[in-house]
Structures are given as C-alpha cells and as structure tokens.
Amino acid sequence: xxxxxxxxxDNSALIVFRICFGALIFLESIGAIITGWVKRTLIEPQFTxxxxxxxxxxxxxxxWMYAYYAIMGLFGIFVMIGYKYKWxxxxxxxxxxxTYFMQKTSYNNHYYxxxxxxxxxxxxxxxxxASIDAIQKPSIKSNxxxxxxxxxxxxxxxxxxxxxxxxxxxxxxxDTTVPELLMRSKxxxxxxxxxxxxxFMHYFIAYGGILFDGLIIPLLLWKRTRKxxxxxxxxxxxxxxxxxxxxxxxxxxxxxxVFFFEPKVIQRLFLKRKSLYLTNNVIVPxxxxxxxxxxxxxxxxxIALPLRHHFIEDNVLWTEEGHRMSWRMMLRSKSANTSxxxxxxxxxxxxxxNLDDYLTKKQKRTVSTKPDVIWQFAQRLKKEYAxxxxxxxxxxxxxxxxxxxxxxxxxxxxxxxxxxxWNPFKHHDWILPSNLDENN
Length: 440
Hints:
Layout: H1 2-6, E1 8-10, H2 12-34, H3 37-43, H4 64-81, H5 85-102, H6 109-123, H7 132-136, E2 144-146, H8 148-167, H9 171-174, H10 177-184, H11 199-221, H12 223-244, H13 249-255, H14 263-270, H15 288-304, H16 316-319, E3 334-344, E4 350-352, H17 361-369, H18 371-386, E5 392-402, E6 408-409
Antiparallel strand pairs: 1-2, 3-4, 3-5, 5-6
Helix pairs in contact: 2-4, 4-5, 5-6, 8-11, 10-11, 11-12, 12-13, 17-18
C-alpha cells in the first residue's frame, strides 16, 4: 500500500488542475454576484434556512454578502496563480463552507462536492510549479507528487458517479417520467426546446445518464476507451451546462480529465517548458499510519453517507431524509400546496400565516416540500411570536405531488411542529407515509 500511495509521479496534471480550479472558483464567486444569485439567495430574504445546528450562521447584513463573494473571487485568483496557495485555498474553503451551511433554499449536491473538493485541495502540493509561491521560494519547486494526490480525485469521482447512476435506477426514472417532467420546462429553449419534448430524447436522457455515470470513470481509466470517454464527457457536460445551467460544475468535471491522461500528454499540451518526472521514487511520510487512517476513514464516510437513507423509514423521494450529501442529483419533480396555522395556546385563537410576509418566492417553494425546512419555519414562527410574549403551536397542511402523481398529505396536520424535536439520525413520524415504492 505504501508503494501505491507514496510512489512519486509527475505532477503536471495537478498543476494544470490547480490553474483551472482557481479560474473556475473565481468565476463561480463573481458569477453569483453578476447573475443575481447572491441578491436572491442571501440578501433579499429576511433570514435563511441554514443546515440544522447552524442557526447562528446567517448572511452578513445589508450588502456585505457582495463583499463576501468578491473576496472569495479574489482567493480564486490567488489559487489560480499560486499566490500564498495554502492560505488562499484554506480561506476560500472556509468561506464556501460558510455559505453552504448558511442556506438550503438553493441546495445543490454540486455545492457539497465543491466544499469537499476545496478541503482536498488545501492538502495537496498544487503550488509547487507554475506558481508565484514557487518563484518567490524556489526551494519548494518540484516536478513530482505522491500517487495518492491523483487517486484521491479518481476514487472520489468514482463514488460520486456510481451513486448518481444507482440513484437513477428507480421506476419513475426508468419509465422516463422524470426526464419528461424536467424537459417540459425547457420548451421555450431556442432550437432545442421542441426536440427535448420527443420521447426518444427522454429515453436518451434517462438511460444515457445511467450509462454515463456508471461507466465514465472505468472508461477513462482504460487507455483504449479514454479518448472516446473524454469526448462523451464533453458532450454530456456541455449538454448539462446548456440545459440545466449548473454553473461551473460541468467544466470542473471536464477539468478532472487531466488526471486520467498520461503525464507526458498533459505536459506537452499545457506545460511545454516543464521537465517530465520519470523516477518513480517511493517517499513514505513521517506520520504514515496517521495519514493512511485519515485517508481510509474519509472514503469510508464517503461510501457510507449516500447509503444512510436505506436505514431510514419510508422513501427518500418523499421524506427527503438522507437526500443531501448523497449524490442524488436531478432525480425528481415536486409540487406542493402548503399552509401554516398558528394557535395561541393561551386563548385558542388561530391565525393563518401569510408566507409572503416572511419568505421569498424561492423560499416558499422550499418550505412547501421539504420536511426539515417546514420544521425549521415552524421553529422560526415560535421564536417570532415568543418575542411578543405569545406561546404558540404551529400546524401544517402540506399536499405534495412527487413526479406528477396525485397530491398527498405530507405532514400530520394534528402535530404541533413548534414543539417537537428534530433528530437527524432517524425518521420523524409526523411525516405521513408516502406509499411510494421504488421497486414496483
């Protein structure tokens, strides 16, 4: 195992990836400002639905989240040029993690992926060539890196794509119900809008997605299929970029290709002045046992997290329990009609909540379908009314449709959500049964 992990190989792929990665996180940060994402998600709301347990984490007041994202963009440039790389990468990681845990209204598994990728990049010697750090301190300059620096990306990608493929293997995806629903909202697209409505496109998206996610990493690893797989990746990720507008992530996925091609190919294409490392020395670090324990433990967690919903009662498509951080991407379509009723415990008087008084349009969509966010809003109402000396109960009527099915009641309307606790490790029985069955 020592030879596999600590054999030194050419670091051209990591250097090129660092440059691409820095440019992409810069574009992600500045793009969030330019497109209005920061305004809609972090400035306009009165409050955000943070991850449960991070109640103290709220956006900066006023317009300061613009500055927050501008600073993130600056750190992206520093990563790209390799200036004070470790501190710049660590700073971006902390700031990105802050916004990740700060809000769930715009939750995306890609945001989670970028967070863990940031943390990985902090640990890598990605600044040891073609960087300002290497110019200012020539002693750190190196043409090599340990083999684990390559394989940590490959294993992580394999886990991600494999779970993404497996998650699609359920009836509503296999019979093209979900792709059809997703494409229905794209009818207005110029040139391709009408084509996306054809049944053959729905089958292509459904089964092409399963095959691509399930096979892309093995095909990239095998030399005979590598080029074909890379061109398939270009088509797949550009398609996703155009149809779903998922930010930098299709391009980030393409950037990972550098870890699958031979170092001499990467060096010849991107770093012609760099000498190729060919020695393959094995250099075992001082704290090798600790390193291997952390390395193995990390991937055990990555393998285990996406499985947790199998140990929670009912269907994750309905309950959302175990959905996040599980590579379950663009798998379902939901619509809902949800209302909140507050009851004054002292007088018994009842008040129907006008969601427009508290939430943005996007927040209303989130609070209508996701049980954890529904619970959080009930807790928020309890605190708001407590400020006026009123002890309340909160009851919810939520009728939710999954993948075009007829609407069913999601939340037990007799349960006071203001006075129940949240347990992140088990099913909540105030979420009513779904009767969804992924296997039939």
